[in-house]
Amino acid sequence: MMYAKQVKSLFMICLFLFLTIALTGCWDKKNIQDINYVAALGIDYVDNKYIVYSQSLDFTNVARQDTTKSKEHVPVWLGRGEGVTLDAAVNDIYTASQLPIIWEHIGAIVFHERSMKQDLRKMIDTMLRYHEIRFTPWVFGTRSNMKELFAAPNAFNLSPLNSILHQPQDVYTQQSYIHPISLREMFIHLLRPGSTLLLPSISINHHQWFEDTKPTDQYEMDGIFAIEKNHFHGWWGKKDITGLRWNFQNVIHTALQIEPHQKPVAMLSLNVPASKIIVKIQGQRPKITLRLNIDGSIDETLTDMLPHQMEKLAEQKIRKEVQTTFRDGVQKNVDLFSIRKEIYRQHVNYWKSHQQGQGIPLSLDMLDQVDIKVSLKHAGMMKLRK
To answer: Is the pTM of this model over 0.85?
Structure first.
């Protein structure tokens, strides 16, 4: 009996030792400061070569800001690689890297204007073939120097993760002018028949923010790049696309100055809860009606003008902005409002009969009506009298 207990105890000890050895340990665990986490990726094309830039952050500094604000500038580390293909350029970054590189935390991808003149769909296809690249990063185009763009400082010594480059939606809620898009949305626009990709343009503003009296560089979305059928159609400045903001979905807040006879009378804060493009075929030609229901409030008034008068003036100005932007696009043969996409959705047989949409020319008389209804709900703390 005693012998049996000893054998059983020895067996249990051996089993315990075996299980202990078989358990996975943490001998291959790396600390956060021992890994290079890439936060943003930049793609350029110079002298028949792809130039890739990576923006990496010291996440120990970023984590420290959760409790206390840093009194020192948060450093940014940049990597650079080049190659005849995009994948070769990315692999070239590993050449002098001192730490393992992790791509899973990329929050922004920036395409230089020069790279957009290449095959954009192939570039995205190459990136998405790598398992660490997700569909969630924000995407931008730029005409700025990529090094200077990625090294731009942030206000209050905050991490670059708290900037327009990585969190554009926060500023968009206060100024809904250029709609930010993700890599997923970009890919959809490139594949969807008749759709025109409007890629937000990001640059560095040198003159609007100051640290004490010293100018400091800050990010700014200054326009859009138009890409249709995987072909680059140029850059459009912010002042050139005033009519496009009314066609974006989820317009939360955009300002409109009412100025009849070139004299300001009021500043309105508007949002667009509903916008719709209606296509009718008349005499084998498409006719477009753009319908906008716009709500808003009066932020500032300089006259005794009645609210319903402001609504009419706002409708007139918005209609003019839409028509002007549409006309500029037609003159450059660029479908800024993705009219062909709506024709495909609403009249697919007409689309097919015109060479899969390629035989549908843009014309000024295509935009038949711009129906706008502006409703001013309130004026700050004062209720409106109808």
So the answer is: yes
